[in-house]
Amino acid sequence: MKIRTSYAVAGLLACVVGASGWLVGRLPAFALAAEPAGRPVTFQPPPDSAIPQGKFGDMVRLGERIFREPATYAPQFVGNQLRCSNCHLQAGRQAGAAPMWAAYTAYPAYRSKNGHVNSFEERLQGCFRYSMNGKPPPLGDTVLVALETYSYFLAKGLPTGEDAPGRSFPTLPKPQLPADYARGAQVYVQSCASCHGPQGQGQSSGGKVVFPPLWGPQSFNWGAGMTSIKSAAEFIRANMPLGLGGTLSVQQAWDVATYMDSQVRPQDPRFTGDVEQTRKKFHNTPFSMYGQTVNGAVLGDPTATPPDGTVPVAATAAPVQQAD
Ligand code: HEC
Ligand code: HEC
């Protein structure tokens, strides 16, 4: 499918309707935008128009630019075709899509992932290393300062030390039936492939990625939070298909998350050299498919797994390109 549209979401949806008709009868899509279940979200982050003039405002604006277009504004740290805003929707403003305002007030915090108290900057580093399949910017680097300044700006007036309603993704009940790859494949074809492509590779137009890749060498790596079937199911149920959050059943969300997280993607940067050992150390949960055998192949097998941290490639190239 050829996509001829700007990155504007309205344009994307209009285009998809025109191209395949799958949304017909379900419009208006935006009336159905994600409404996270659970505690009511009352906090509103300030709009861009509230960014002040001067050096502080300049840093907020830089942070938002990096957040929306990391491959352009922080290419030396980005190893895939994703943007922060592909997962943290509305450039980190959307409740129920791990918004930056709720994240900002939640740090410093202990994380079992690395066994110590993390500053907000260190938490940002993690998303570069894993979700962006890149390299963590050094502490104090302008990229981290800008992203922290932007997040601080968004969190204006929000109390620290409390878990803000809207943080992270809305929790999802367990599925009635065990989550299933084959059912997930069907959901994928029906509800996702029109945008993310039949192979999960995403789609681009005029050299710009308009629908981000869900797996393959240009997506998040095996260390990323989205490789947890639970996190992915929660994100998908609340936010996907884009503009139709909350329309998949709980079962469908678990099934399609299982399908998505059973595909080939870049290696876990913590890979010890041995898949079984890496699974034991970092993926010892029923929600990770790393090291499991799917369709006859072991996920994470180094002979069939793209490398992690492919930053030199992205950094020396012009802003991300992908064949149409
Ligand atoms: C592939 C999707 C994806 C991309 C791309 C991504 N993240 Fe994340 N990010 C996540 C997930 C999943 C979590 C964990 C959310 C949770 O469980 O609360 C997370 C968590 C975070 C958190 C902590 C949130 C909290 O409430 O504790 C911050 C901060 C963050 N990301 C920043 C970034 C930045 C900055 C970028 C771009 C450099 C980025 N992320 C790119 C998926 C992504
Ligand atoms: C109408 C087009 C459309 C459909 C259909 C759609 N998505 Fe998305 N999806 C997007 C766009 C666009 C983004 C990035 C949003 C942004 O940048 O604001 C996205 C982001 C994502 C992300 C986070 C980024 C990444 O690449 O990992 C995941 C995961 C995801 N979608 C999964 C799904 C799943 C699963 C389905 C089917 C249930 C689905 N999407 C259906 C358009 C769509």
Concise account of the structure shown:
The protein has 14 helices and six strands. The chain is mainly alpha-helical and 324 residues long. Strand 5 and strand 6 form a beta hairpin.
Question: How is the topology of this model organized?
Answer:
Elements: H1 9-20, H2 54-68, H3 70-73, H4 84-87, H5 89-92, H6 100-104, E1 109-111, E2 116-118, H7 120-129, H8 142-154, H9 181-191, H10 193-196, E3 203-205, E4 208-211, H11 229-239, H12 250-260, H13 275-282, E5 293-294, E6 297-298, H14 311-316
Antiparallel strand pairs: 1-2, 3-4, 5-6
Helix pairs in contact: 2-8, 7-8, 9-12, 11-12
Bound molecules: heme C (2 copies).
The site of one heme C has 27 residues, from helix 1, helix 4, helix 10 and helix 12.
Low-confidence sequence ranges: 1-36, 316-324
Spatial ordering of strands, largest sheet: 1-2
Kindly state the percentage of residues in helix: 25-40%
- How far is it from the N-terminal to the C-terminal residue, by CA? 9 Å
Bound molecules: heme C
List SSEs in N-to-C order.
HHHHHHEEHHHHEEHHHEEH
Radius of gyration, whole Å: 19 Å
* Alpha-beta classification: mainly alpha
Label the overall shape: globular
Number of H- or I-type helical stretches: 14
In terms of DSSP E residues, the strand content is 5-15%
Q: Major beta sheet, specifics?
A: 2 strands, antiparallel
